[in-house]
């Protein structure tokens, strides 16, 4: 006799704040993104508000995450890149592949059913030596995981 199947869990929205996004921190950032993609989120938002630079390796990782999200029926978006990063994304034509948003103080509308409350939980070890990278979470956000390398994961509730 087989055990009854559990319905799949659904994670509507996962946000990741990245403060450094280049070849040097790609292993840590890639590990965080691998773990959050295992949750099969409907939408992943990568907040670059605290990031000053990205390089070709980071763009490659964004494209890989985008491809994986599309395969699972999800959406990857980039939020709050500074003007320099915006130009890099435009030069790489990433802005034509991924949604790129700039907050004006309002929370982004997640890609979910109407009325669904976005939540996420990413298992993470405690960050040695302090709070998650990128500073405190935005108002209304609940920290769900400590920093992994230089990426911090938060979920809006």
Automatic annotation (TrEMBL):
Biased composition (Pro residues): 125-141
Protein name in the entry: STAS domain-containing protein
Region (Disordered): 105-157
Organism the protein comes from: Micromonospora lutea
Start and end residues of each STAS domain: 1-98
Extent of Low complexity compositional bias: 105-124, 142-157
Matches recorded under SUPFAM superfamilies: SpoIIaa-like (SSF52091)
Entry-linked Pfam families: STAS_2
Top-level taxon of the source organism: Bacteria
InterPro entries noted in UniProt: MlaB-like_STAS, STAS_dom, STAS_dom_sf
């Amino acid at each position: 006799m087989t055990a009854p199947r559990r319905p799949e869990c659904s994670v509507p929205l996962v946000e990741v704040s990245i403060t450094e996004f280049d070849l040097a921190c790609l292993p840590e950032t890639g590990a965080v993104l691998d773990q959050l993609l295992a949750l099969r989120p409907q939408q992943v938002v990568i907040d670059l508000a605290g990031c000053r630079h990205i390089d070709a390796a980071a763009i490659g990782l964004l494209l890989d995450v985008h491809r994986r999200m599309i395969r699972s029926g999800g959406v990857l978006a980039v939020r709050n890149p500074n003007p320099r990063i915006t130009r890099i994304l435009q030069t790489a034509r990433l802005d034509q592949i991924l949604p790129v948003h700039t907050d004006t103080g309002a929370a982004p509308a997640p890609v979910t059913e109407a009325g669904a409350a976005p939540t996420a939980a990413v298992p993470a070890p405690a960050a040695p030596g302090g709070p998650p990278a990128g500073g405190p979470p935005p108002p209304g956000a609940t920290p769900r995981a400590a920093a992994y390398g230089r990426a911090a994961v938060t979920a809006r509730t």
